[in-house]
C-alpha cells in the first residue's frame, strides 16, 4: 500500500514538472481578451522578480554615504556599488537574445535567482569593500536579464493593441521599486546598519527562487544547439568596463594619467571592435541564411527538371541513392547563428529615436538618484531615513504616469504622451535646480514628484512604441539593444554627473557646503539641458505609425462620433 502511495506521489510530481516545463502557446496564454490563469501567474512571478532587480539596484542610494564613511573611500569609489550594478546589467542584456533562444524561461529565471541569492549573501557577510562589490556583481548578473525576459514575454502574449496598457501595468510594479527601495534602505541603515539590506535581499532571493520553481511556466521555444559569441561578450566587458573605469579615476588622477586616458582608450577601442564585430556578424548571418533558404529551392528545381527529362531506365540505383543519402547524413548543414547583439534593428528610424530618448532619460535619472541623497544628507545634515522619504513620492508619481501613459499610448499614440512627459520633466528639473542652503527640504520632494511623472510618460510609452515599430521576429533583438543602451547610459550617467558636480564644487572654492550646493545646482541645470535635447528629439523624431498626434486623435474621435450617429 505504501509503495502504491509513493508511486502515485512520484507520478503526480512528474506530471506537475512536465506541465511546468511545457511551453504555453499564444492561444493558451491569452483567451477572449484576458490572460489565462497559468499565464497570469507566470507574468506575476516574472514581474515580481524583475521588481526585485530594480529594488536591489536602487536600495543602496540612501545608504551610500554611510558605506563610504565606514570603508573610508571616496564618493566616486563608493559609487561603484551602484554603477557596477548598472554596468554589469548592461553587459548581461546583450546576452538576452541568445539566452532566450538557447534556454527555456524557467532555466533562465531559476539560474538567475540562484546567482542573485549567492551574491546577496556574500555582500551581507563581506568584510571588505571588494567583497561587497563582488556581491553586487553577482546580484547584477542574477537580475540583468530579467527585465528583457519579461518584456519579450509580454510582447509574445499580448496583441499590438493591448501592449501599451500591459507594459504600463508592468511598469507600475517596476516604479514601486524606486519608492520603497531607497526608503527601506534608509530606514534599515539607520536602525540596523547597511548590512541588514543585504540580509533582506538574501531572503527575498530565496522566496523568488521558490516561486520560480513551483509556479513559473515556459513561453516560446528554445534551441539547444544555439551558440553564443563569447568573444563579443569579452569585448563588451572590456569596452564598457574600461570606459567606466577611466571615468571613475578622473577624480583621483589627472586626465593625462594612464589610469584615466589609457583605460578610456581601451574602452573605446573595445566598444568600436564590439560594434564592428556585430555588424559583420549580422551580414554573415544574413548571407548564410539566404544561401540556406536558396539551397532547398535549387535542389527542388533540379529534381523537378531531372524527373521530367530523364528516361525510366536512367533512374538511379538503390545503391547510388543510399550513398547519396549517407553523404548528406555525414555532412549536415550547420545552421547560421545571429550576432550576439543584432544592431540591424537600428536601421529602423523610429526604433533608433525611441532608444536615444530612453538612453537620455536613464542618463539623467541615475544621476539624480545619486546626487540628491548626497545633497540631503551631506549638505543639509538630514538622516538616511529622511533622504529616502524625500525621494519616495517621486516613485509614486512615476507609478501613476506609467499606468496612464500606457493606456494613453494605445489610445493617442506615442508622440503626444512623450512630448507631455518631456515638458513636465524639463519644468520639474529646472525648479529643482533652484535649491540652496535654506530651501524647504520638501521642495525637493515636490519637484522630484513632478519629474517622475514626466519620466513615466516617457520611458515606458516610448520604449513600447519603438519595439512596436519592429517586426515580430525582431522584438527579442530590439529589446536587447534598447536595454543595453539604457543600462550603459545609466551606468555612465551617474559617475559623469557626480564628477561634474565635484569639479564644479572645487572650482567654486570657499565654504565646502556652499561649494557643494553650487555644484549640485549646476549639475541639475546640465540635466535640464539634456531633457531639453530630448524634447527636441521627440518633437522632430517621434513620427510615423503608432506615433499619433492630437490632430490624428481628434480625427479618430470625429470618425467614431460619425459612425455612432450613422448607426
Automatic annotation (TrEMBL):
Residues 42-546 form the Major facilitator superfamily (MFS) profile domain. It is found in: Cell membrane. Residues 303-341 are annotated as: Disordered. It holds the Pfam family MFS_1. GO terms for molecular function: transmembrane transporter activity. Residues 303-331 have a biased composition (Low complexity). The chain crosses the membrane at residues 38-60, 80-100, 112-134, 140-158, 165-185, 197-216, 228-247, 259-276, 351-376, 382-405, 417-435, 441-462, 522-542. It comes from the Bacteria. Keywords: Membrane, Transmembrane, Transmembrane helix, Transport. It is a multi-pass membrane protein. GO terms for cellular component: plasma membrane. This is MFS transporter.
